[in-house]
Amino acid sequence: MARQLNIRSDEAYKLAHRLAKKRGKSVTEVVTDALRAQDLPAKSAPEVSPEQAARTIRALLEASERSARAAKAGSTSDHSYLYDEHGLPK
Fold first, then answer.
1. Helices (DSSP H) in the chain: which residue ranges?
2. Which of 16, 17, 56, 57 has the most C-beta neighbours closer than 10 Å?
3. By three-state DSSP, how is residue 83 classified?
4. Do residues 19 and 30 lie in contact, with contact meaning Cβ atoms separated by under 8 Å?
5. Is the Cβ–Cβ distance between 25 and 34 less than 8 Å?
6. Rg of the chain over all Cα atoms, to the nearest angstrom
7. CB atoms near residue 83 (< 10 Å)
8. 89 phi and psi angles, rounded to 5 deg
9. Cα-Cα-Cα-Cα dihedral sign, residues 45, 51, 55, 57
10. What is the pTM of this model?
């Protein structure tokens, strides 16, 4: 005898029945298909060659240097005056 799975959700019920009707399948089939799709291994990020990584790093360094040259004299990223001694906003 097959095991049962009970899901108490009006939304899940409506979605499962709507999909079953659209696809001409049983509710069990569409729910099983959806669960299988979620159980697939996550897609990993594409491999990056050392040359691509080096180009990206060079581009980031160049952008950083351009940004530093464009900064106004005396400007700083120090925002410590906004926080107390525990690092919480004042």
1. 10-23, 27-38, 50-70
2. 16
3. strand
4. yes
5. no
6. 27
7. 11
8. -60, 140
9. positive
10. 0.46
